[in-house]
Amino acid sequence: MALTALDEFLESLTTKALTGEVPAREEMSAVLATADEDVLDVVAAASRVRRNFFGMRVKLNYLVNMKSGLCPEDCSYCSQRLGSDAEIMKYSWISSEEAASNAERAIAAGAKRVCLVASGRGPSERDIDRVTHTISAIKDTAPEVEVCVCLGLLKPGQAERLFDSGAHAYNHNLNTSAANYRQICSTHTFDDRVATVGVAQRAGLSPCSGAIFGMGETDDDVVEVALALRNLDPDSVPVNFLIPFEGTPLGGRWDLTPQRCLRILAMFRFVFPDVEVRLAAGREIHLRGLQPLALHLVNSMFLGDYLTSEGRPGDEDRAMIADAGFVIEGAAEQTLPQHRHDLVTIRRRGAGTDQPANT
User: Is this structure's pTM higher than 0.70?
Assistant: First the structure.
């Protein structure tokens, strides 16, 4: 059977990715521009790359929101932003014991990485003390677990303190392209974010940086942020899809379709063939019934709830992984309906509450 132009294009992209060659800008744009009826062909091609480097393993990650809301930054996508009217939980720092307890349940449920997150522009020295104590509490019972920290912009010496305390990684997402960044935030810059990733990396922390899609960005913005991330040489790349919280400037944006999400994930797999690409916030809302297909593109995902919204029950996600033929990576292994605000469920359990976490 003769190959079509799409077959030849995807074969060329796959060959490049398998040999570590970055796609050309035009090729990245072409993946995003493929038709909905061709999305399974795109997924199949990128899946070959995923399987080559990661087999059928899925790495589970778990978020602990140590400080919710009360943020002075104005990131327009965020429910914790300055001026947000989203009815999220707001609380100051939870104790190290509470954070470690949430982490312990997540680890028992299969999480290989625990992500400690706190809202704010950046941490004080006292905040770093809190986080280092929490890392110690987690490591006391689970010494092999990876601990990632996400605290915003870092001051001199703070990344080194986190590394010395046992932190494995630091997350600071670029979120969108440099050209588009001023449209979503005015209180800090794209360059501030790039610099923070570099600070963490130079301190020995594994760089974790990704993006958010569904904020009105163009295909060019998607390509530009992917290339900017590639220049950072991250070890893990979380791909988030906007959760349109009512009470935020982007609360009315419901631009994504499941097919659009899959094309973005496939493009990221071609750009980051041997890097941990993580399916992150918004997957339940925007991928919906096509979430299992995303597992053929990513090799990592979040388990349970997000920072201020609820995710699916852990049992459902573990069943989805098994039903799709994948296996959960162990500690020893490497590797919408329009305007449906009822699908955005404010988190009311786990860290900061007396209710059990969703693990």
Answer: yes
